[in-house]
Amino acid sequence: MRATPTVLENNRIKLTVEVDESEMAAALDETAAALAKQVSIKGFRKGKVPKNVLIAHLGGLEALRSEAIRESMPDFYARAVADTLSDPIGQPDINITSGESEGPLTFEAEVEVRPEIEIDGQHDLRVTIPSPNVSDGEVDAQVDRFRETDATLRDVDRPIQTSDLVTMDLHVQEIATGVDPLEMSDYMYTVGSGTITGGVDELILGLKAGEELKVNGSLGNGVVATYTMQLKQVKERVLPDLTDEWVEENTEWTSVDEMRDAILTQMRRRKVVEAQLSQRDATLVALGDLVSPELVPEVLVDSETNERLHDLGHRLGEQKMNLEMFLQVTNQAPEQLLATLREDAVRAVRIDLALRALVKSEHLEPTAEEIDEELEATAKAMNVEAEILRTNLRNTGRVVSFQSEVAKMKASRWLTENVTFVDPDGVEIDRALLRTDQSQDGDAESDESEFVENEVEIEAADSGEPPDA
């Protein structure tokens, strides 16, 4: 088989494909064998029908050839895509030009391909991630949480502050319904906990015992109610003095300094891990923002949206839920869910296009050795032979797709090493902190092969044996 690509306008190409007579003969034999197992002809068992009898039953050789072309066309097209290293993103328009009745089969396939775009600004990217540094105030706050377990309550006659404990009579009346109101006497509320309804924590500050607070808020599921609070008593928490004696008696540490050092170490480790975990996603989003939304092909967005919707349905099925139940639980309309999925899909496509552009601009194309190495690793992770994976990639037209995933891995690594990371205040973060391994048991090492594995689908029928899940 021979395939020749021609570049057309609007990110489209035309593949001119010629399938020689020997390949067509093999396709005819394969189709005949498959049909022989399906048709019922008097006097013959299924699968034992002679080819000439089958041809006569179908209405002649042309009928068999037409069926063979129909069955084999997806494979012919996939091989043409692989042989020409094309990267189609839509369904092809196929036109058979000759060979429908006899001789070599020739056809043309026009299809939209992924656009090649250019980006600018990748060397100046400043990516915001959580700060890995721990402030004295954060340590103090954590120490106070330990002290709060041994706090006492004291009546106060002053305006309410955050963390105060307020005793109130609570009256909740639904609006525009006939449901009886909810009455709660001597309800104790911790200011700042947010457990009543939105807006209470802000509006209650500055009030005093004896006053009333009335707020309209949500009860959930679209129901709105009026919350009336008669404030009766205000207490503040009195923390114990922070001494070595208190620390030794109430915690696992023996002194204030030891306690603060331990808390600092734990918080620093946690914050470094948070910063490290956010690096990749934050960096990719920043890179994707370099691609204008107008350059994103609709066919890619539609495909990505449908894939996300399918994945959501699969995950819901595992939890014994359906989409309708999910919409009810999350209080969403179908249009809202689709809009969210589409927004995420646009972001994902922009990131994909940006990574591909970065590969080209920074000359990060993988070598043959790098591709083979990743293919071996991916095959091992999927529990199949590397040669089976290689064959399936070619037969399904995904050679370019696999190579692109390897290239994008290189681009992602380049990006992590070349952007500037800053904290939410815009202060540059010491890169050495982000390289520190915070794992205690060595389980923090990531496996990039999983990134490629998730992008590669193996046809189980071609391998003969499905990969282990």
Mean pLDDT across the residues is 88
Low-confidence stretches: 441-469
How does the helix and strand content classify structurally?
alpha+beta
Alpha carbon gyration radius: 33 Å
What is the number of independent domains? 3
How helix-rich are the residues, as a percent range?
Answer: 40-55%
Q: What does this 3D model show about the protein?
A:
The protein is of the alpha+beta class and 469 residues long. The chain has 3 domains: 2-112, Trigger factor ribosome-binding domain (Alpha-Beta Plaits, 2-Layer Sandwich); 152-238, Transcription elongation factor, GreA/GreB, C-terminal domain (Chitinase A, domain 3), CATH 3.10.50; 280-463, no CATH class. The chain is 46% helix and 17% strand. The strands form 3 sheets. Strands 6, 7, 8, 9 and 10 form a 5-stranded antiparallel sheet that branches. Helix 7 crosses helix 10 (334-361) and helix 10 packs across helix 13.
Brief synopsis:
With 469 residues, the protein is of the alpha+beta class.
Spell out the blueprint of helices and strands.
Elements: E1 2-7, E2 12-19, H1 21-36, H2 51-58, H3 61-83, E3 93-98, E4 105-112, E5 126-128, H4 136-148, E6 152-155, E7 165-174, E8 182-190, H5 200-203, E9 212-220, E10 223-238, H6 244-250, H7 256-288, H8 298-318, H9 323-329, H10 334-361, H11 368-382, H12 386-395, H13 399-418, E11 420-422, H14 431-434, H15 449-453, H16 460-463
Parallel strand pairs: 5-11
Antiparallel strand pairs: 1-2, 2-4, 3-4, 6-10, 7-8, 7-10, 9-10
Task: Write out key terms for the chains shown.
3 domains; disordered C terminus; Alpha-Beta Plaits; 5-stranded antiparallel sheet; 4-stranded antiparallel sheet; Chitinase A, domain 3; elongated
